[in-house]
Amino acid sequence: MASKREARKTALDAVKNTAEEYLRSSDKASFSALFALSEYKNADVVFTYVGVGFEPATSAIIEHALSLGKRVAVPKITARDEMKAVFISSTEELLRTENGLLEPEEGEEAVLSDSDVIILPAAAFSDKLDRLGRGGGYYDRFLAASRGIKIGIEREKLVLPELPTEEHDIPADILITEEKIRSRL
């Protein structure tokens, strides 16, 4: 099996070589599937990353959740190089950081419950719902200390049969693509 570094490169090359129209249409279909999930409908809080570059454009999730009256939290990297969940009430509260991410400047920290939803970013997901992050470990540390239903969103043709994993890697509970939903629940 490939190393994590090799798997990340394979996934990034695949998404870079995928038609933009497919990326947009698959995101739209995946978001519709997410919005129909009972786990999403029943969540009081939706924690989601803010997609940049080739990542799914999660601003649509933020706007949808806010329109339903849900509380929305997004990642904020602290001065101690840790990640916390911070509530926002609009995407206009997000500022571009030095590393190109969009984060709130400050805000109330969210504490997630078992019924809340966590939308996971990934370089890639596998058929088994394993998640390959970007390599910083922020999400694995955050997920180890958090509660909530972990949902990955990926483009079906970018889901890999398997990924290299380590003991600290935390998989998704649900993986949504434009074609199907895989679940551990």
Compose a concise summary of this entry:
With 185 residues, this protein is of the alpha/beta class. The protein contains 5 helices and 11 strands. It has a single domain (4-183), classed as 3-Layer(aba) Sandwich (Rossmann fold), CATH 3.40.50.
What key attributes describe this structure?
Rossmann fold, alpha/beta, 185 residues
Q: Describe it for me?
A:
It is a single chain. With 185 residues, this protein is an alpha/beta fold. It has one domain: NagB/RpiA/CoA transferase-like (Rossmann fold), CATH 3.40.50. The protein has helices at residues 4-16, 20-36, 38-42, 59-67, 138-144; strands at 45-48, 71-77, 83-88, 94-96, 102-104, 117-120, 124-125, 131-132, 149-153, 174-176, 181-183. A seven-stranded mixed beta sheet has the order 3-2-1-6-9-10-11. A two-stranded antiparallel ribbon has the order 4-5. Strand 10 and strand 11 form a beta hairpin. The chain is globular and about 40 Å long. The mean pLDDT is 92.
> Any low-confidence stretches, pLDDT <50, length ≥5?
none
Shape: globular
Number of helices: 5
Order of helices and strands: HHHEHEEEEEEEHEEE
Total strands: the figure is 11
> Strand order within the widest sheet?
3-2-1-6-9-10-11
- Percentage of β-strand residues: 15-25%
Instruction: Specify the CATH architecture.
Output: 3-Layer(aba) Sandwich
As a whole number of angstroms, the C-alpha radius of gyration is: 15 Å
Number of domains: 1
> What do we call the CATH topology?
Rossmann fold
Main sheet makeup: 7 strands, mixed
